[in-house]
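agent: user wants the full assembly modeled, not chains individually. Plan: 1) parse entity lines 2) check alphabet per entity 3) run joint structure prediction 4) return tokens. Steps 1-2 passed, two entities, 498 residues total. Proceeding.
--- entities ---
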Amino acid sequence: MHLTNNLNIMKKQLIILVILISSVSVFGQDKFIAKNAYISFYSSTPLEDILGESNEAVTILDATKGEVVFQALMTTFHFKRALMEEHFNENYMESSKFPKAKFKGIIEGFNKDMLKAPVANIKITGQLNVHGVEKTITVPGTIGMEAGRLVATAKFKVTPEEYGIVIPSLVRDKIGKEMEITVKDNYVPFGQ
Amino acid sequence: MKRNYYILIGLFILFFSGNVYSQDLDALLDAQTKPTVDYATASFKASRIINGHSVEQMKKKQLDFRISHRFGTLNDGAYGLYGLDRSNIHFSLEYGLTDWLMLGVGRGSLNKIYDSFAKFKLYRQSSGEKNMPVSISYLTSIEINSMKFDTTRIQLTPTTFAPRVNYFSSRLTYVNQLLIARKFNDNFSFQLSPTFIHRNLTKTALDKNDIFAMGFGARYKLSKRLSLNAEYFYTLNPNAKVMETRYYNSASIGIDIETGGHVFQIMLTNSQGMREGSFIPQTTDSWLKSGIHLGFNISRVFAFNK
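--- prediction returned ---
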């Protein structure tokens, strides 16, 4: 009696352990994360170039559906001129009201082999939420293995006005009509 | 009974792990985004509220070139074009050596004063991971009055004089100030500025060498690039009325207009001096007698971190 009881317990523990391990491993294989993803925006005019960069964006790739989420806190963007950073947060992005920018999209024609193949061009369609305004956009990018790492990039243009960011006429000549957004990240399996 | 218990645990784990697996990507993303410390930035538009310092300062390798004017008083009347005929100027260069230390040098035409200061950022108001209700900075400055000494002798009796030695140290005024500010919301910020001023030599023996004052400053943003500012310095131990000269507390109201790299500050104030050693203990005009000066500060920032 005593022995069977012990056996029973061990069996249960084993089952629990198997479930735990399998759930973790399934989880690990299907999701990839980049915690220090790079994102920049760049505007160029004859009067002034503006470059804001962040190395603290976070993105997760779900390899079951080819779904990508990307999030950057506005206050992690840094500029060469301290005043630009202040104006970026205070006057344009209103970072205290809208602390983050977010993109959620699906890689077009995704299959899992794309993650093991060399870097290739892709298109991602999804919702970009900036300054509290959400727009559906399709952006060109790349994804694939580069030097043994899963690398993804994207480069696209947005106009501030589309996202309700008002640029006064006084500084209109210094800020480009379009902002070029560049994204680069190295994905690692989730949980590592 | 025990069996049921283990099945329950097993089911729970199954359910839980399944739940994690199908967890919304958004929630996962939020869980992975590091908690941040949110520092209050731009409590004020410029390094001055009006006359006095604000808790703002130049960041590393940023240079602020400031030009300020205070005109004569409104009670100069039409003959003096309400003060515009008289003007005194102050200009200064102020540089961020680090994000927490700013050094500045300047020269004002009133009493031909050269000044230098250092401003230290001690605490930054923050929320999120780290909570700090106020920003605190410390300002220390030395002002050098470069006017010619008005006398080289001391009157002992109506007819006898002794020679007076004029020391360089007699020209010096020291200012120590704590700047304690809170940005209550995007629009409203308030600052307290407890101040201690020591003057090595005063104009008369009745003037005090040590002056204690409390500054009150506030700004309210009318729009993203326009704010309304007010400032008042209450002198705790004001000078007695000396001869015909009476001293008043400094009170000012103004607006800040921000245009990219410039901040224009336009104000009405009863103080003519633009440095602490002047406007806190030596304001001689009164709002009640229309002793009001129109003035402006222009700030132009240059970045050297290319």
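agent: reporting back. DSSP finds three helices and 16 strands in chain B. Residues 2-21 of chain B form the longest helix (20 residues).
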